Amino acid sequence: MQKPEAIVLCGDGINCDAETSWALNLSGFEPRPMHVSDLLRNATALENAQMLVIPGGFSYGDEIASGKILAIKLKERLREALYNYIEDGKLVLGICNGFQVLVQLGLLPFSGENDPRIVSLVRNTQLKFINRWVRLQVFPDVNSRFFTSLREIELPIRHGEGRLALEALESGSTESTEQTVKRLAPLRYTEDVNGSFDKIAALTNPAGNVLGLMPHPEAFVRWTQNPSWTNRQVAIKRFERANSIAEIPHGLAIFSNAAASLN
Amino acid sequence: MSQMHGTSQTANTPSKPETTLQWCLSVIPKSDYSAFPLYWIRIPERYKNQQEELTSALREVLIDPLQEELWVAKPEERDVWIEQWNSRGFRWWAEKQFLPGVTDNLAHTVQEALELKKFPDVSVSSGAGFIFRDRLMSAEDAANLRKTLTMHKIYSDAEAVEKASRYTIYHPLADLFRVHDLSADCSNELLTFPAVRLPEPPSTVPVNLELDDSGLETLSKDRLLALTLGEMRTIRNYFRQKHVQQFREKRGLPTNPTDVELEILAQTWSEHCKHKIFNATISHVDFSSGGRNKVVVKSLYKTYIQGPTRELMSSRKDLLSVFKDNSGVVKWNDDTAVCFKVETHNSPSALEPYGGALTGILGVNRDILGTGLGAKPIFNTDIFCFAYPSAELPTRPKLLPAKAIMDGVRKGVEDGGNKSGIPTINGAIFFHPGYRAKPLVFCGTGGVLPLDVHGKCGYEKHTQVGDTIVMVGGRVGKDGIHGATFSSESLHEGSPMSAVQIGDPFTQKRVLDFIIEARDLGLITGITDNGAGGLSSSVGEMAQITHGATIELDKIPTKYPGLADWELVVSESQERMTLSTTSLEKLQKLAQKHHVEATAIGTFHNQGFFEVTRGGKPVALLDLEFLHDGLPALELEAEWRPSQITMTSGTVPADLSKYLLRLLAHPNISSREQVIRQYDHEVQGMSVIKPLMGERQQAPCDAAVIIPIYGDTTGLAVSNGLSPRLSFHDAHLMAICAVDEAIRNMVCVGADPDTVTLLDNFCWPDPVHGPKNTQGKLLLAMLVRACQGLADAVRAYKAPLISGKDSMKNDFDDGVVRLSIPPTLLISGMARVPDVSKCVSMDFKQPGDLIYLLKVGKPGLAGSHYEEMLGWQSALIPQVDLPKAAQMYRLFHKAIEKGMINSAHDLSEGGLGVAISECIIGSGKGAKIDLTHIIEIEKKHSEASPFPFSAEKVLSRIDTMLFAEGPARLLVSIDPSQKSEWEQMWKGFDCHEIGTVADKPRLTIWEGEVTVIDVALMDLERSWRTALPFD
């Protein structure tokens, strides 16, 4: 069976493209790294792809606001193609800086062309960049194609601007912004790590095919990436619990879910 | 910015003097604020009728509509802002703007974004505004003020605002900062768009060298050439030669050297590039044994650095390229090599810490990018030596506050690493008051490169005659010309800053992506970086491959007009690489895709000279042999007298728990978490052993391990070692301890000691004797001894050196005070972990595990943190047994391979007591330690000695046992089931069971019946996590 193709955006300061491609490769995708310039020049490349991944990094050096300028670039030059792509039900995944780009593009949590933008990702309450592993809880009732069968997971966060902040919806809306955003959050931190609204770590669109998340799933595709793997190793050695190795690293599971949803 | 695209015809056209509109913009947060971004922009006349569209584009680019609003004003309209703030009770308004010519990354991004919005050619300058009060308005006000993050204070006068802001919100060498009184009419004093204004550049002129000695010396000093009299004479004599004169006449050059030539020579012959001290002939006199032993060392570098490595090369076939390229290259597998380089950026970091550290890290990244045909950086490692901010430190007008240095350096490395997508996997922060003179900022980077690039060897350069010279990346400005020697006073307002350089990680990331793709497409035949010395250095060095090069100044793209010819050649403007190619067109097309400027600036040839032309005529023409080998060797004197130390000592203090807690809180020992968390140490997805491991993510690991190749199981361990506190006791031992620390750190995590490669970085106070430097001979002798120690360790451990660097003038002297750093040698190491699943972290793993102390030689108190804390001073230095230690590490590796070891940690600062505490903190468990047995062994040795403070007696004391420091000691925990095999294995070594891992989170240590230490984990952790004074 042919592997589904995933375009992995690179260039312009994106810097997690290599490991994201590797993670996609492990999970059954055919990764296709593509420079932003190449995609803008040839938007038809999207037609062959089942998923578009905007990896983490510091696009445009994070100047002004993270993700902002790359979002303007994509909006100016790729707007139509992107909306069509999403409407076709194909997958879009934005990780960390990629999530920020999707928010700046106005694609999350609503991905329709005329939907208002209701969230921002702003500086962590600590006002610092944070790299640490966090526990996350999956909310299975939220419609998403990325978290099937996952409940509690561990992933690293590596960001300075990952705090989700809300703006009030225009009056006349039937539901408050808070409720809307909560309804579309498939993943939350188990403790407050950056001041994010309702400890939200990820947002999806209502259709479940666009996902943005601050933690890095591509950074947990083998067990030896987990900071407590040496403890696990000793425990395995002692109790011969070979079966516990069978648990798939949580980041890899997220990509594999996406791949499975395409078959 | 259309000029960003890589064609040379646009390169040198300065923006035409078009009439422009000027606006000032301010991004105002909707919530309470006290600081906000400011922008000054210049808008071409042609957008006059599109002002509304432009405003809406600016709004889209600059603000988050949910959080902020944009204020737009023409210069004359800014009164409105002033009134606004004034009416809200603010008294002072401060504007911050970059000094002309300082890299403004934010402005570049805004310009590029406006170009996307179809408004090219708008010029932008970014800055910030700050509002302050002179009194509190109300209680509510006071509460708000506490909440705002930057400004807690109220100020009674403008001067106080400036003083409090200096080094906290602005840096005088990089920023213009002006405080306005909002209650007065300040509208005429407001800052406007900062433009670089330069007079017509001076044309190239000949410099008369037919001078007497004092004339030559004055010339060298006035032109900031930093050449000695001997070197000036050598240059003069070269130009006196008949055949040189005839050749120059034929080429239309004056008899005397041109200023361009003199600058090229000064740059090429600088200490920085030619390592004159390490290549000097040194007469070393040793007075240590009462007599007077004289030896002559021809070259420290050849004798002690290169020599031992050459000896090891026959057994180490993996050393592919050592000491010749921008980094040392080691074979990794059949397809790939790894390379590693560590640089220092001390002086720039002393002047402007943020920019200094940022350009330091980006610079060493370029060393990797410029290795072979171009390697890809995969990790950074950064080591900082600071003075701990405290009242006893000397303050001098020209010395930055110690804390400003720390914060700036930390932030610079954060931006340099994180924004480039290169993980900071390992590092160290070391405090000593001696670094008040100059902080040491070591930036290291490792990379991977393919062994085969389109049929060519990837770690060699293949530049050939006829290849085009291409400059890639940033443009040339006055940045870094003559480095730090300029002082701010001598500059006028419109002159571009040359002393301070701010790096641009975003531009460099684009360059990096471009280079790697160009390499893989086979478009590069040779490459090197533009670091110190700029084009003069990069082209001058690459010219040696083909034996000649010519560059054309007219083609070099500049940031602004007005640069003199010599400035173009030696400018150190950042983010630039120099490469050679045979496929210019393809290369430039690729550059366009990456938004990178790639300009053909000349050609490599084989005519034996380095030529620089302007308008087709030569302005410099230097014989390559003279340029690179004409430098006369320095002759220096060293005198070694062992240090005389007045011994002070005391009896064992009563409450050792208290001292353990104090040691854990020592800035050299306490947790680095707050710094580590701000550095991305996982990007690229290769990490195996991270800086902080374990279920609590609190276990400080000894070395980092990454997997350089996706899907592979072979790991690369990276570590560092330094021991400057021993320098004043014995520099020879200091060097050995640095090597040992780097190696034992790697061995602890599972690296194979037979695969170690090392890098040396010497940072020394000026070791050249002179009237102002009376300690010169001793400092040089210490350098000789350190080199000898290094050579001994390299031979014993069979760990070759593959690259290195020296920085030899780490002194501060303002005519009143002379401050020097402690002589410092940093050893960085790299080694192979055959199977990463065997890696070991330092945290205890399970209750019941047996704890062992494994050691070779004896530790000492001299230079230890315990001794410093008690105010003692002893001559009890560690005793090392290098062959035995080398054996121990190899055997230890076998134990790791067998999976016998559950945790391993090296004993370093704070000794055994601190090491055990760290293993407990890392694990959240406890330990019961009984030192009775090992103390008895030491006591047996000491029985013969009648003196109460003899070395043997002191070594058998409980406090020495707990807190002495020294090389070759490891703390290990194993599963009890391994006990007999483990002990069998270590017959013939000092390997002692000292306790067990406990469930109860508590550290208890006994000697006989006495409980000497009894502390709860919580208390250990509270002390250890004492925050360092970083922002």
Strand count, sense and closure of the main sheet of chain A? 9 strands, mixed
Number of helices of chain A: 8
Strand order of the largest sheet of chain A: 2-1-3-4-11-10-9-6-7
Taking all Cα atoms into account, the compactness measure Rg of chain A is 18 Å
- The poorly predicted ranges of chain A are none
What's the alpha carbon Rg of chain B, rounded to whole Å? 30 Å
Order of helices and strands of chain A: EHEHHEHEHEEEEHEEEHH
Stretches with pLDDT under 50, minimum 5 residues of chain B: 1-15, 484-492
Q: Helix amount of chain B, in percent?
A: 25-40%
Note the overall shape of chain A: globular
> Taking all residues together, what is the mean pLDDT of chain A?
92
Characteristic key phrases:
heterodimer, A: 263 residues, alpha/beta, two-stranded antiparallel ribbon, 11 strands, globular, B: alpha+beta, seven-stranded mixed β-sheet
Brief sketch in words of this structure:
By secondary structure, chain A is of the alpha/beta class. Chain A has 8 helices and 11 strands.
Task: Note down, in words, how this protein is organized.
The complex is a heterodimer of chains A (263) and B (1031). With 263 residues, chain A is an alpha/beta fold. Chain A contains eight helices and eleven strands. In chain A, the strands form two sheets. Chain A has a nine-stranded mixed beta sheet. In chain A, strand 3, helix 4 and strand 4 (91-95) form a beta-alpha-beta unit. The radius of gyration of chain A is 18 Å and the shape is globular. The relative contact order of chain A is 0.16. In chain B, the strands form nine sheets. In chain B, strands 18-20-17-21-19-22-23 form a seven-stranded mixed beta sheet. Residues 1-15 and 484-492 of chain B have low confidence and may be disordered. Chain B is of the alpha+beta class. Chain B contains 31 helices and 41 strands. In chain B, strand 40 and strand 41 (1010-1016) form a beta hairpin. The chains are: A alpha/beta (263), B alpha+beta (1031). At the A-B interface, helix 1, helix 4, strand 5, strand 6 and helix 7 of A face helix 1, helix 3, helix 15, strand 25 and strand 26 of B.
